[in-house]
Structure formats: C-alpha cells, structure tokens
Amino acid sequence: MNQSNKKNFEFIKNYGVNYFLQDSARNWFEISSNNKNEVKNHKTDKIQEIIEKIRSYNTPLKKSANNLVVYDGNLDAKIMFIGEAPGRDEDIRGLPFVGKAGQLLNKMLNAINLKREDVYITNVINWRPPENRTPTDDEILEFLPFLQKQIDVVNPDYIFLLGVIAAKAVLTTSLSISKLRNKWHIYHSLELNKKINTIASYHPAFLLRSPKYKKESWEDLKKLKKKIDDEK
Q1: Start-to-end CA span in the chain (Å)
Q2: What residues have CB less than 8 Å from 210, skipping those under 6 apart?
Q3: Where would a tag sit more exposed on the chain, N or C end, judged by fewer CB atoms within 10 A?
Q4: What is the dihedral of CA 41, 47, 115, 164, to 10 degrees?
Q5: pLDDT tens digits for 119-168?
Q6: Which pLDDT score is estimated for 17?
C-alpha cells in the first residue's frame, strides 16, 4: 500500500469505518470480453448494486427525504463531478443538480463544450439532509464508501469537486475551497491502481449566492479543459 493510500485508509479507519460494503477486496473490473456493450452492462449492474446498497442502508437521513438521489449522466464518462447533497428539487425528482444550482452547472458544462450526458454527476450524500443543512462529518464518513465505489466503477480520468463537502470527502482535507482551488490534486483509489487528476472549485449553489466568485470558478473550469485537451 503506498503512502497516500495508507494515509486515506488510516483516516477512514480512525473514524470507525472498518469495512467497505463487503468483507474482502473485490475486482469490480473483471470482464470476460472487451466488447463495449459488455463493459457498459457490467458498469450498469455494478452501479445498480451500489444503488440498492444505499437504499437498504439504515440512515436517519432517509426518514426526512422523499427520494434517493445517486447519479445522472454517463457511466463511461471520463469526467466525474461530485457535489454535496440533494436539495429540495433533487429530492423531488430523484436526480442530482436539477434545481437552480443544476441549471448553473449545465451552463458551466456548456462553457467548456460539455453536456450532462458527457459526464457523471453525483453527490457525497445521497439523501437530502433536513432543511438542506450541511452534512455532518459522521454523515460524510457514512456515505464515503458508496462514493468510492462509484468512482471505482466509473473509472474517470478527472474528478471535479463542487464545494467544500466534496473536497473534504474525496481529498480528506479540512482546507477551504479558496485554498484548494486553481491547482491539481491526486485522488488515490483504494480499489483502482490509478491516480485520478482532481480539481476543487466552488459549488454552484454558493456561486448563486456569491456571484463574485464565478470568475474564479471559470478559471477552474478552463484549467480542467486545458488538461483534457493537452492529454488528448
């Protein structure tokens, strides 16, 4: 285990997460053929497994929420966008980023020539917290294994973190977005033998409340686009 993985494992272990949905390591990418349809079906099956595990997981957040919200977009996407938690509109429709913040996210994607169907969109927390409150550290740790499994299945080349909760969960940091943004970070999966380029920026909901930060968010998006273009 490399030092980064060891650090992440110790962080999770110290918070009481002793297992990741199953007792032993599992190869989520054991596929009998290179056929694209089989790969897609495999991913669909694995994501559905995760959805069912989240649905059956006993958390107090279920009591006040209407719908489970897991993902939207493309399972074969090379870019994953991770937000905080569902809001009122998302809780009603069962999809992430469909309210005003979602409309802004769509515009952000369009600005770098992407559409929702080109990327994979999810949140750290999959049930709406009461009154849209900020998720607690315990809730983040509760749902972190489900998020990690999604990353393993989708296997993106880039992760774009929307807001401080996503950054805290994925990068295991308490730093603010202002200190994390405008630079590349590395996410080390506990399952994948792969380093994933990761960038953190402001959550669209925050940008709606504080539009003066939109320019900085735009710089982060351009940084993502440039790296993608440079690595083609």
Answers
A1: 30
A2: none
A3: C
A4: -160
A5: 999 999 999 999 999 999 999 999 999 999 999 999 999 999 999 999 99
A6: 52
204: left (phi over 0), alpha (psi -120 to 50) or beta: alpha
For the chain, the domains span 34-230
Q: b/e for 109-137, b at 16 or more Cβ within 10 A?
A: beebebebeebbbbbbbbbbbeeeeebee
Q: How far apart are CA 73 and CA 150, in angstroms?
A: 13
pLDDT tens digits for range 50-103: 999 999 999 999 999 999 999 999 999 999 999 999 999 999 999 999 999 999
**Helix pair angle (100-111, 214-230), 10° resolution:** 40
* Residues with Cβ within 8 Å of residue 67, at least 6 apart in sequence: 86, 91, 92, 93, 94
169 backbone dihedrals φ, ψ, rounded to 5°:
-70, -50
Name the 3-class secondary structure at 126: coil
Identify the CATH number of the domain defined by range 34-230. 3.40.470.10
pLDDT digit string (tens) for 24-55?
Answer: 444 434 444 556 677 778 999 999 999 999 99
Q: How many other C-beta atoms are found inside a 10 Å radius of the C-beta of residue 231?
A: 10
Residue with tokens 């990353």: 151
